Amino acid sequence: MVLREDIVKFLNEYLLVNSIEDSSRNGLQVEGRTRVRKVVFGVSASMELFKRAKSAGADMIIVHHGLLWGQEQTLTGLFGRRVKFLLENEISLLGYHLPLDKHPVLGHNALLLKGLSAQKLQSFALYHGQHIGFWGKIAPTNLKAVAQKLEKICHAKATILPFGPQKIRTVGVVSGGGWSMISDGIDLGLDLFVTGSLDEPVQELCREGKINCVALGHYNSEKIGVCALMKLVQKQFDVETEFIEIKNDI
Q1: How many CB atoms are located within 10 Å of the residue 26 CB?
Q2: In terms of CATH architecture, what is 101-221?
Q3: How far apart are CA 26 and CA 94, in angstroms?
Q4: 66-120 pLDDT, tens digit each
Q5: 227, 23, 243, 2: which is closest to 107 by C-alpha?
Q6: H/E/C letters for each residue in 147-215?
Q7: How far apart are CA 100 and CA 114, in angstroms?
Q8: How far apart are CA 47 and CA 237, in angstroms?
Q9: Which burial class, exposed, middle or buried, applies to 92 when counting CB atoms under 10 A from its CB (0-12, 13-18, 19+)?
């Protein structure tokens, strides 16, 4: 059993929370029990996750998408019910958004590239004045093989927009809703841009920019960083940990 604040302090420092500007309120969002025996991890805060975490005996939940997004909210409706459930059951909620996206070791973007054995990783994709993605070089590989490898890593079916070279040598990754930064990949002359979810403009941006795109789903592209964070907490603290899957192909 460990103190809640020891986990919060460690993660805030490790993920450099105070140096990263974000619309999300990173760190402790809802305060639960002082002492922690079990920590549940998930991609996104939701009542389904909260209920399953309670059933699993969690004292703390850590997610990538938390409840607080840069503005005050009244404790009413759906939002109020979520907060009430956590408070009544004394379960703490921690959220880490951009600090997890852009982390060079545990971040989704860096880990997806490492899963492709990419070398010479460099940051790119400017978002609110900071780079949140990474790109790197891989051994020449056909597009289908790269997509299949990403599908295996993310346990997801990929959407492929094949408008660039068939042999992939350079790959950039901005997970989640990073499709809007595909122009950054085009400007770099990347062969492949990897993201989570897509929107209507992406197809023609890829065609005109002569770049391939692989999308794995917002949720699926960001499990990898959450699971890596779980392993770090498991290694650092004497607590039980569990990842709870709330399947979501969007």
Answers
A1: 23
A2: 3-Layer(aba) Sandwich (3.40)
A3: 7
A4: 999 988 899 999 999 999 999 999 999 999 999 999 999 999 999 999 999 999 9
A5: 227
A6: HHHHHHHHCCCCEEECCCCCEEEEEEEECCCHHHHHHHHHHHCCCEEEECCCCCCHHHHHHHHCCEEEE
A7: 15
A8: 26
A9: buried
| Residue count of the chain | 250
Q: What residue spans in the chain does CATH classification 3.40.1390.30 cover? A: 2-97+223-243, 101-221
Which distant-in-sequence residues (6+ apart) come within 8 Å of 231 by Cβ? none
List C-alpha distances in Å: 18 to 22, 110, 155: 10, 21, 33
- Single out the residue of 213, 217, 110, 214 nearest to residue 156, CA to CA: 217
pLDDT one-digit tens code per residue, 172-231: 999 999 999 999 999 999 999 999 999 999 999 999 999 999 999 999 999 999 999 999
CATH of the domain spanning 2-97+223-243, picked from 3.40.630.30, 3.40.1390.30, 3.30.365.10, 3.30.56.10? 3.40.1390.30
Token pair recorded at residue 153: 């890593």
CB 244 within 8 A of CB 219: no
- 42 within 8 A of 246, measured Cβ to Cβ: yes
Tens digits of per-residue pLDDT, 138-179? 999 999 999 999 999 999 999 999 999 999 999 999 999 999
- Strands lying side by side in the sheet with 240-243: 27-30, 92-95, 60-65, 38-44, 240-243
